[in-house]
């Protein structure tokens, strides 16, 4: 447990002070805050992902972004881009394969969560 989390927990467990919902919420936020090293690693990883995305062909990147980040279905993407569903499906699969390879080459491991 980090120092801040221990201090926060100690304050909350002090029975001489009334515990409020805000105290509990603050303790949860502080206890779940990533360490500076974790935050730096996350930012570095995000930058690497952006660089990899920039290396995709524009049409493939567009389909990937719409499917993954906007949560659209293949049919919705095809309709939006005025393309056949088979075309957007193929572009999505190609983009996934390419981005996976680029991420692997840049040292980013695949997450299984």
What tags apply to this protein structure?
single chain; Arc Repressor Mutant, subunit A; 6 helices; 73% helix; 0% strand; disordered N terminus
Layout of helices and strands, plus pairs?
Layout: H1 3-13, H2 21-32, H3 36-54, H4 58-69, H5 74-81, H6 85-105
Number of helical segments? 6
Q: So what's the CATH class of the largest domain?
A: Mainly Alpha
Portion in beta strands: under 5%
According to CATH, the homologous superfamily of the largest domain is Winged helix-like DNA-binding domain superfamily/Winged helix DNA-binding domain
The domain count comes to 2
Q: What gyration radius follows from the Cα positions, in whole Å?
A: 22 Å
Overall spatial form:
flat
Tell me about this structure.
- This protein is an all-alpha fold and 113 residues long.
- It folds into two domains: 30 residues, no CATH class; 70 residues, Arc Repressor Mutant, subunit A (Orthogonal Bundle), CATH 1.10.10.10.
- The protein contains six helices and no strands.
- Helix 1 runs antiparallel to helix 2 and helix 5 crosses helix 6.
- The longest helix has 21 residues.
């Amino acid at each position: 447990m980090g120092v801040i989390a221990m201090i926060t927990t100690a304050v909350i467990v002090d029975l001489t002070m009334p515990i409020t919902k805000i105290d509990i919420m603050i303790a949860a936020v502080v206890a779940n805050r990533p360490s500076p090293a974790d935050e730096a690693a996350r930012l570095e990883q995000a930058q690497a992902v952006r660089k990899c995305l920039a290396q995709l062909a524009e049409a493939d990147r567009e389909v990937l972004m719409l499917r993954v980040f906007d949560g659209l279905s293949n049919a919705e993407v095809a309709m939006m881009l005025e393309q056949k569903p088979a075309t957007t499906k193929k572009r999505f699969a190609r983009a996934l394969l390419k981005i996976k390879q680029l991420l692997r080459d840049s040292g980013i491991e695949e997450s299984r969560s």
